[in-house]
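The following record pairs a protein chain with its ligand, iron/sulfur cluster.
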Amino acid sequence: MIVSLLKFDGSLDSLRRAIEMCGGFDKLRRDDRVLIKPNNCFRHRITPPYGMVTTSKIIDGIVRLLLEYGCKDISIGEGAIIDLLDDLKPYTRKGFKGTGIDKVAQRHNVKLIDFNEGPFVDMDLEGEKVQVAKAALDAGFLINVPVLKTHFQTRISMGFKNLKGCLSKASKKKFHNTNRLDFLICLLNESIKSDLILIDGIYMLEKGPETLVGKAYRKDIIIAGTDVFNCDTVGASVLGIDPSQVGYLREYAKRHNRSFDIRNIPIKGEDIESCKESLQWQFEPDKELLAPANISGLKSPSPGQTLCCGCAATLALALSIFGKDNPNMDFGDARLYYGKELYAENDAKNVFLYGNCGIKSNKSLQNAVRIEGCPPTLTTTLIVLMRGLLSKPRALKLLLIRAVKLMGIKLGIYSETFPGWDRYRLKEFDETHFWLRK
Ligand code: SF4
């Protein structure tokens, strides 16, 4: 099955060509119930969206082409989980607003669906009972529109992983809690078939999936096809990630006798060699988030593959804030452990166990400080870290100032930037791709 790999010049024609070259609409019927599934894991309005979420520019283009084709029943659906600034409440609709997808829907009169609002259908994935959004299962034609990005846990997050957004909140957690994440992602993609996969490569993201840690670059390509394995294999190769090392691709290849040899994939358009990058996918929170603030003595080792996005996102924001508020400080030998694979080397008051997984993995420790939650809230994280690492008066003062700033962000009257974000002021990062504040 053909994969188009095309330079995107911003025009509707460019998008049309990408779809035509891979026969993307060949099986589409005008009376199909069409569902577009973007990756809209937008956490809060302060995070730069580049390379992290699907651009509304591409979603707008897809809707236009569907209307031009004669489709009448078109929806855009997502099931995002947490709002970091609002006690982890579901935020799909805020996400649609934050990235301009709500305006696309209004302009073309298409429906927006928050999968979190249900209904769900029970599904058994080889013994794992999960709930999948009925809207995703009922779709006559599913267009899967992920971003060209790396992921600290699964190496890449593209077509396969994007469908995890169709699960209920509890099922998403279950995927992470079973130690069978890759296998379950593979099974999910056998149960929900993507009819067209269109990887939005206007931007790409290194050390993803969030721009708090990751670094976005302009790329201007589109990868499209009707086979999710081929598309993700091409996407991974473009980023410089070996697809045979991506767990769920390996599972799928095993079950379906598929090859990772890129020469077996018919690619139309650009020469893949000329598009290849070499992006990193792993990150170490202390190096990425605390070192820029010249903070030393607070170590947080690389999380391995058992820290899920909930804890990673909250922790990334908390450490970014903590670093910004306490530059040039040395905390001696404090440690932070999280996920299911990090085991503390000693039991002391300057050892922090983050999230229920981090606590469970180190349950024999008596003196370590626990930051509870699945994931913990941003407020809890900041309070425990500041109280544990700073003098009482300093912690109190900073927490009060922080509370006011966070309230200002929530009300939209204050905005925050972090080291490294200046690059997003460059011309190549075009906020109209998300119709931000327009
Ligand atoms: S505690 Fe954190 S890492 Fe563990 S399942 Fe919950 S959100 Fe994921």
